[in-house]
Design a protein that fits this description.
The complex is a heterodimer.
Chain A (H helix, E strand, L loop, with lengths): L10 H33 L13 H28 L2 H33 L7 H22 L3 H33 L14 H33 L4 H8 L1
Helix pairs in contact in A: 1-6, 2-3, 2-4, 2-5, 2-6, 3-4, 3-5, 3-6, 4-5
Chain B lengths: L1 H17 L1 H22 L3 H24 L4 H5 L2 H7 L4 H30 L4 H28 L6 H28 L5 H30 L1
Helix pairs in contact in B: 1-6, 2-3, 2-6, 3-6, 3-7, 3-8, 6-7, 6-9, 7-8, 7-9, 8-9
Classes of the chains: A mainly alpha, B mainly alpha.
């Protein structure tokens, strides 16, 4: 069976496809979140070192992963959009950014909640924390750029260029922050290395990570449908759709 | 090609020489920002010495962003930028020439002012030397990366603040390695590693930034 991938590069076809997919993603995200949170709060044992507070990682780790993945996916769509001039790619990049920023913020916030009982401080200038903060700043700058440019075509392309520059820079930022941190800080605080994580904890975390993926897919598809409607409002099919 | 590059640089230098007010504003901004810190922190020499590398470097970032907001703006307003992009010369060279001119006009003075500020902050002589060296290697990065931001935000409302939001996170490696070199010189550690990494970052920026900036200029002009 051959799938015609390019069929869905057209916003009209993608709009229909997204509409069919959203309920699946949304419901499975909801169910998996329920299962994951149940494991996190009732099944997973209390950690003998960290007590109950470690349970923050069930939210924290998936959020941190997603905030990084989403930036990579945005960079991918930006490159595709710039190379092949596909309208949908830019719409995807735009739809992804707010969710990425939310996850970046969530990972910082839950990190602070975890840090207070563990390290005794809401915030330390640890390498991972610092680079997560800078990633959050990158999302904010990108959304500020989009909101400042009224012209749609220019906004798409400018945002894509900035995303790509950021993507090249992210690893450099990460390593510079890491070296900066090891050089500056006496080893008063170290990110705890989970020695061997109990497998039930890992299961809960992975379930919630998959739930975060599915949630992202659902939310981004809803958002991209909105963007498609807004941009294609002059076309016949949108007018037809709105009349019904 | 080289002639075109030199022409772009000479033109910007001439324009800057005819408009000294703009040029001086940026330099005095740098001096004033740095001079505010002792007033806020207190005159204790040990503390000042400790914060000096970071303070000077952050002020250099801000000063360069302040002048970068105008990098393409004047040429954009009077239409000469469009003419230069329409000319058969490669736009990459235009972006590169503009960034290099910006460095000569705004970057080089910073590293000449830096020793005076270093004395204000009770830095020893060898640390001042490293500070100048780190600024020599680091300020071209600021101009090159900043030219990308200036091209992206060309003609937008609130362009200056927006430019800061976009570009400051990208400056992080330059800040870390630049201030880090001075820091290690102060604490008697080797500073060569920091400067090597800073130079590597400069090479990468030199390779990528002019292309992205010229692409951004085309996006912003059309």
């Amino acid at each position: 069976m051959s799938i015609s991938w390019f069929k869905y590069a057209a916003p009209m076809n993608f709009y229909q496809l997204a509409g069919r997919l959203i309920p699946w993603f949304a419901w499975s995200a909801a169910i998996l979140t329920g299962v994951g949170l149940y494991i996190a709060f009732f099944v997973a044992p209390t950690d003998f070192q960290q007590g109950e507070a470690y349970r923050v990682i069930f939210i924290h780790v998936p959020a941190a992963w997603m905030s990084m993945f989403i930036y990579l996916i945005m960079a991918f769509w930006s490159a595709v959009g710039l190379a092949w001039n596909t309208r949908l790619s830019f719409m995807m990049a735009r739809a992804l950014a707010p969710t990425g920023a939310v996850f970046a913020f969530l990972s910082l916030w839950t990190g602070a909640l975890w840090g207070k009982p563990m390290w005794g401080a809401w915030w330390v200038w640890d390498a991972r924390l610092t680079s997560a903060l800078i990633l959050f700043f990158l999302y904010v700058g990108l959304m500020a750029l989009w909101s400042a440019i009224d012209d749609r075509r220019r906004g798409d392309r400018a945002g894509a260029l900035l995303t790509l520059v950021g993507a090249i820079n992210v690893p450099i930022i990460y390593f510079s922050v890491k070296w900066w941190n090891t050089l500056h800080q006496g080893s008063s605080i170290n990110l705890m290395k989970a020695p061997t994580m109990a497998s039930i904890m890992l299961t809960g975390m992975l379930v919630l990570a998959i739930a975060a993926w599915l949630y992202t897919l659902a939310v981004v598809l809803v958002r991209v449908r909105g963007i498609i409607l807004e941009r294609e409002r002059q076309t016949e099919w949108v007018k037809e759709l709105l009349e019904h | 090609m080289l002639r075109f590059l030199l022409a772009v640089i000479r033109r910007d230098l001439l324009l800057a020489a005819r408009r000294k007010g703009d040029w001086l504003t940026s330099q005095f901004f740098f001096v004033m920002v740095v001079s505010m810190f002792p007033l806020g922190i207190g005159p204790e020499p040990n503390v000042l010495r400790m914060v000096a590398p970071g303070v000077v470097w952050v002020a250099a970032l801000l000063a360069s962003l302040l002048s970068l907001a105008r990098l393409f703006a004047e040429d954009y307003r009077d239409g000469s930028l469009e003419q230069m992009l329409l000319s058969p010369n490669p736009p990459v060279l235009l972006a590169l020439g503009k960034a290099l001119a910006h460095w000569l006009i705004y970057g080089v003075p910073l590293l000449l002012i830096a020793p005076v500020l270093g004395i204000q902050f009770a830095l020893p002589a060898d640390a001042i030397g490293i500070l100048m060296l780190s600024l020599l290697v680091g300020t071209p990065i600021l101009s090159l990366l900043g030219s990308v931001g200036a091209a992206l935000t060309l003609g937008l409302r609130g362009g200056g603040v927006l430019l800061t939001l976009l570009i400051l996170p990208l400056y992080v490696p330059a800040l870390i390695f630049g201030a880090g070199a001075v820091d290690s010189a102060l604490s008697g550690l080797g500073w060569q590693a920091h400067l090597s990494l800073l130079a590597a970052f400069l090479m990468l920026t030199l390779l990528v930034a002019p292309w992205v900036a010229s692409a951004a200029l085309r996006v912003s002009i059309e």
